[in-house]
Specification:
5-stranded parallel sheet; alpha/beta; globular; 4-stranded parallel sheet; single chain
Length: about 300
């Protein structure tokens, strides 16, 4: 694996290999007082986030440090980007400075792919930590790992992805990965929050959340991305919550085995009720925990060379 830019770059074998490696790393660290492996000693991982992040950014940094890599965070507000430096020049600067891997989040769809092309001759690996409304591959992988831990094999499972699909890179990556692993996906959203080409996606589509919940094995709630919305996509936050928020009444419609996921940050009271978010059915903290192990696995496969293969 040269880069991780999109779930579309993976086949089922490669995806399962990442999930299996994440599980093995979790077991290796279990019970250790010092959570440190020597695997990536001497390697340098640089995180460059042009958008705000807590979970993704922190978990990549922890993942690198737990594998003994040198992890450097580039603060965009205090970097030469503030002076007008282009993404290309920033990337080439980081490569020249000795980065082995660049983890990038950017508001422009396709930014990670451009970065990989610019760095093609340098040997630097690129990880897409979210590019615009395009993809967020490591989020989909950690979601699949979380579901696999709870449900076992995902083949034949039916998963509902609910909310702002139009602006969600998480939804796009999850549709690709879940279908790759044999699951069936149903997208649930108001018509205004579905992409225009959704009819060509390998999914079911519904506008009625209550009608879907009784027949799914898991629910993935999505964040309403107000920062990407220009215009009115729904009347009010209250009306969105009435139509598409996961409250206690709707949680009771789910089969008992079905968990609830959310990539965070959660808008409590709108996307998800507090009683649901804090219930045993919600695996939000499991997702965060798994995010560290999954991103350790990604760095391992990218940077450990032939040993990872």
């Amino acid at each position: 694996m040269r880069h991780l830019l999109s779930i579309a770059d993976l086949d089922a074998q490669a995806a399962n290999a990442l999930l299996d490696t994440a599980d093995r790393l979790e077991q290796t660290l279990l019970g250790r007082q010092v959570r440190k492996l020597p695997t990536l000693r001497g390697r340098t991982v640089v995180t460059v986030f042009y958008e705000n992040s807590t979970r993704t950014r922190v978990s990549f940094e922890i993942a690198g440090k737990w594998m003994s890599a040198d992890v450097i965070n580039v603060s965009i507000g205090a970097s030469s980007v503030g002076k007008g430096e282009s993404l290309r020049d920033t990337a080439l600067t980081l490569a020249a400075a000795g980065a082995d891997c660049v983890v990038v989040r950017h508001p422009a769809s396709g930014a990670a792919h451009r970065l990989a092309r610019w760095l093609a001759d340098t040997g630097v690996a690129v990880v897409n930590a979210g590019d615009g409304t395009h993809e967020h591959p490591t989020q989909a992988l950690l979601d699949a790992q979380t579901l696999r831990q709870r449900l076992g094999d995902l083949a034949g499972r039916r998963v509902a992805v609910v909310g702002d699909v139009l602006h969600s890179r998480v939804a796009r990556s999850n549709v690709l990965l879940l279908t790759l692993l044999g699951a069936r996906v149903v997208l649930v959203a108001p018509p205004t929050l579905l992409p225009s080409g959704v009819g060509s996606w390998p999914v079911e589509v519904s506008h009625d959340l209550d009608a879907v919940l009784g027949g799914v094995d898991a629910v993935m709630m999505l964040r309403v991305q107000a920062e990407r919305m220009h215009g009115g996509f729904f009347p009010t936050a209250r009306e969105y919550a009435v139509g598409y928020g996961l409250n206690q009444r709707r949680l009771d419609l789910l089969p008992e085995h079905a968990p609830v996921l959310h990539p965070g940050p959660m808008l409590r009271g709108m996307e998800i009720g507090s009683t649901v978010a804090d219930s045993e059915r919600a695996l939000v903290t499991d997702q965060v925990r798994n995010g560290v192990h999954l991103r350790m696995a990604v760095l391992y496969h990218l940077l450990a060379g032939e040993e990872a293969e």
